[in-house]
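Late entry, written up from scratch paper. The run itself happened at the end of the previous shift, but nothing got recorded in the book at the time, so transcribing now.
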Amino acid sequence: FYGWWDWRFLSLIAISTMIDYFVGLKIYESSKNKKIFLWISIFVNLGLLGLFKYFNFFIDSFIDTLLLIGCEVENIWTIKIILPVGISFYTFQTMSYSFDIYKKKLKPTRDFISFAAFVSFFPQLVAGPIERASNLLPQMLNKRKLKSENIKEGIGLIIYGYFMKIVIADNMAGISDYIFNNNSNPFNSFEVLIGIYAFTFQIYGDFCGYSSIARGLAKMLGFNLMINFNSPYFSKNPSEFWSRWHISLSSWLRDYLYIPLGGNRISKLIENIKKGPNFS
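Output as recorded:
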């Protein structure tokens, strides 16, 4: 499925799969060197992600910065390559496996085929949700039966997803594109506001629609994927919004980045710095 678009990118997902499979086993078996193996996973996965997704972005930003200060640059080397589809999703997914084993929340599997299926599970491979190994991997290892209720529920999720994508997102895209890509006709503030709201529903319809289709396909096959969007536009504040929007990504950043870096202690530290020294 992944190689149908461009077979050459199969090497990237194969590298991430093999690295984290063996890293997971080494972290579990080793007590002294488990941090080294964790760093191997982080370095390889983020290295591939940074190279293919962000290298040209930072190079272009660097060139623009030099131009702003009056420096002209020539012959800057960039990578002429198409961004691999879904590289962020499966990278975060494989890394979470190594993190959970390191934190003793999960035991590694020795079934390489099941682990590879967890990494490259086609319904959510290119657009999420980002699944945790603790949820999806046991479903890979257990036997499943074809059930009519799963098929009915899956078809319902797929229809809802296509409605959000085709009816909502695509129609809203026509409005927002017309307003924000039209440089010949000036628009008044009300028309710009219409464009903003159209784009708001467009991105929600896209993301929510894709996630719903993925959940529906997985459900028909007997798998339960996590809910990725929970009515985010009904949130009462920004904090609640981010707990409802792209839940798999926001929870991943919370559990594997925000909390390990200190969590609320970072906010308290910033507040104390702003207040200044206390000599009392």
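The chain has a mean pLDDT of 85.
(Scratch paper discarded after transcription.)
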